[in-house]
Amino acid sequence: MEDSDAFRLIKSGKQSWFDNHRKFLPMNRPYRRNTKDFIKNRKVTKQFPGVRSGDEIMQDLNNRGLRKVIDVDAEVVNAAISKTCGWNKRSIFWDLPYWREHLLRHNLDVMHIEKNVFDNIFNTVFNIPGKTKDTYKSRDELNKYCRRPQFAQNLVTIKYPDVPFVLNKSQKKDVLEWVKKLRFLDGYASNLGRCVDVNKIKMFGMKSHDCHVFMQRLLPIALREFLPNRIWELITEISLFFKQLTSSSLIDEELRNLDEQIPVILCNLEKIFPPSFFDSMEHLLVHLAYEARIAGPVHYRWMYPPERYLRKIKHKIMTKAQVEGSISIGYIMDEAAKFASFYFKEGDPTLPLKEKRNEVYLDDIVDDDMFEIFKPPGKAIGAEGKRYLADNEYTEAHLYVLMNCLEVQPFIDVFVTEKRKQFLNLNDEAVNAVTEQEFPSWFEKYVHNRANKISNHYLRTIARGPLREVRTYNGYCVNGFKFHTESYGSYRATDNTGVCIKGSVYNETESDYYGTLVEVIELEFETLPVKRTVLFKCEWFDPTPHVGIVVHPRYKLVDVHDKKRFNKYEPFVLAVQASQVYYCEYPGRTGPRKDLKAVCKIKARAQIDIPASPSTDVIEPAFQNDDNDVIIEAVVGDEDVLLIASSEMDTSGDVDVDEHLIDHEEETSDEEEFENDVTTSEEEDEPDLDDSDENE
Asked: Is the pLDDT of residue 666 over 50?
């Protein structure tokens, strides 16, 4: 700790971690020899030694003579020692025998770090008075540490020149008016428009989660049109760093890359922002990826769950004069109700089952032979309407259902094989065109041909096609998302109309398909049992790369052209295939991106990404016993019997405990029973059974 490179600024008097990140770079990095962009005339040759072990820290504490706060004269002794090092006391946790073995003895709260970093960036870029890091004192001391004469004070006008990372007044207004009009998905974020004051040109009252959404989703979009490209790229890299770090599924290789990239990002920021910008929050970024590798995803370690729980228990306050008593009584009542619910078969009948947001609980399907495409994937929203499909709609809907039914796939292969034999020179595009035109009629004839002996009721029904009359709805809940049609969602405070479908292949000519939901249609097929499937009718943006879809080559940010549409009539997708996105316009709408909308992909709350790798096939046991023998308690008749199963035994087969024991009892002679009785009486006279078991 005494080897820290942090220093106190001359004018502002605050602690700064400026130029404290080059030591994390490899030794051959040119930044280490740079004497111009960082602290002038300074080269960095030392290297970060790594995280200290528990034994090293313990030895350091003992050598310094730090005392615990409960010791005599602890305050006086620790105050004298703390002047020469970063320690101010000896924690009582070091008395725990396992504490020195911890790989992570503290936990950095990513929630507050992210909020503080966002506040520093936003307030500095918007030049918020009293909160910006680019102050007069910062300009005065800037050239005492760095070589940036272009930002020094003009002695004639006694003014400071503008810096490239600060927006002008018109740009600030454009961003704030853009924030005021934003509409997010249902349950995704709060209304940020309430935090905007266009007259005073500032934002106020932003909660931690508001900063979280703005940092990871909106900041690169808001500043892309106004900041120089090199500055926008650095802010985007910080945004993507937090986005990857706070992901629900982490990959060790990606975390190692983040650990290597974040010192470079901070060094690039040091080349642009003043030393006053870099407080302890910016420095802590270099340790977050390492902690994520040790402790796992941040969702189990940051402060969102505790603070939300605090809000929950605050609602239990009935008497403000006795706050603690109200909270404790309410907590005890919840615990008692939860405990009592275990004695009911279906839980506590007095506590209603509360469904999670956008989650759907469906009844079990009675018919196990029903096709997957006919099983209800979600729940409809709004009033039910009815209409008849047009000819082109009916054809496309029937074709899409056939092409996406798993049970029909073998017949598609048979059809394609026949066509390739009939026309030898057909390429893949021609085969797809022939399949779309001829397969539905061919499939109906093939299924109803008695010579083919197809008796499956569902195949014969799906081949005949759906009914012309369909049900329509204003929205649909599926896959953990809530979708609204354009007409229904245009008057709402949230925007749930964005739809994304994964492309079949990913190359230069095909990627994801993005569109908006026009109508929710429920198809019904004839004959019993009732067979229905839900389709989304969508309007698709042009998926052509560099024309309708523009992807940033480095950061993979996706933009869609608002005025270009897919020229092929394929409006339908299965509801179960849809994932949700929202489209965000760029502020200003006057630059080169005036017709583009940024795409923000969303993942459902209940969805967890599990990588498909061979390692996932091996399931680790939840409990591992150090002993090789496992003791199992079994009841035979009225007697309790202890069975000892060795880990070397083959437990793959089922063992009938009762028959095994009964056969053994029948083979036992009278003489052996007498010896067993004597042994049992001797064992009862033993004074200490625990010691005998341990010796065995």
From this structure: no
Q: What is the pLDDT of residue 504?
A: 61
Output the CA angle 448-450-456, nearest 5 degrees: 60
Torsional class of 349: left (φ above 0), alpha (ψ -120 to 50), beta (otherwise): alpha
Contacts of 166 (CB under 8 A, 6+ apart): 124, 125, 126, 127, 134
pLDDT exceeds cutoff 60 at 681? no
Cis peptide bond prior to 274, omega within 30° of 0: no
Across-strand partners of 478? Answer: 481
Q: What's the CA angle centered on 182, arms 176 and 187, to 5 degrees?
A: 130
Looking up tokens 């993942």 gives 603
What is the Cβ-side half-sphere exposure of residue 537, based on CA atoms within 13 angstroms? Answer: 21
Q: Which of 478, 494, 475 is nearest to 188 (CA)?
A: 494
* CA atoms of 412 and 396, how far apart (whole Å): 16
d(CA 215, CA 182): 15
Q: In sequence order, what are the residues at sequence separation of 6 or more whose Cβ sits closer than 8 angstroms to the Cβ of residue 73?
A: 67
Cα separations (Å) of 456 from 371, 376, 407, 449, 462? Answer: 11, 20, 11, 13, 10
CA distances from 304 to 112, 151, 285, 678 (A): 10, 40, 19, 64
Q: Which two tokens stand for residue 91?
A: 């924690």
In degrees, to the nearest 5, what angle opens at C-alpha 90 toward C-alphas 89 and 93?
135
Answer whether 548's CB lies under 8 Å from 561's CB.
yes
Extended beta strands in 491-561, E state: 498-501, 513-525, 531-540, 549-551, 558-561
| Cα–Cα separations (whole angstroms), residue 671 to 24, 134, 662 | 79, 97, 18
Q: Residue 500: phi, psi to the nearest 5?
A: -130, 135
CA 77 vs CA 37, 74, 92, 491, 636: distances in Å? 42, 5, 16, 67, 67
Burial of 648 (0-12, 13-18, 19+ CB in 10 A): exposed
State the virtual CA torsion across 423, 426, 428, 432 in degrees, nearest 10: -50
The C-alpha angle 607, 613, 615, rounded to 5 degrees, equals 105
Q: In the prediction, which pLDDT does 649 show? A: 45
Q: Is the pLDDT of residue 327 over 60?
A: yes
Q: Is the full-model pTM beyond 0.85?
A: no
Would you list the DSSP string of 177-240?
Answer: HHHHT----TTTS--GGGGEETTTTEE----HHHHHHIIIIIHHHHHTTTS-HHHHHHHHHHHH
Are the CB atoms for 477 and 360 separated by under 8 Å?
A: yes
Q: Is the pLDDT of residue 509 over 50?
A: no
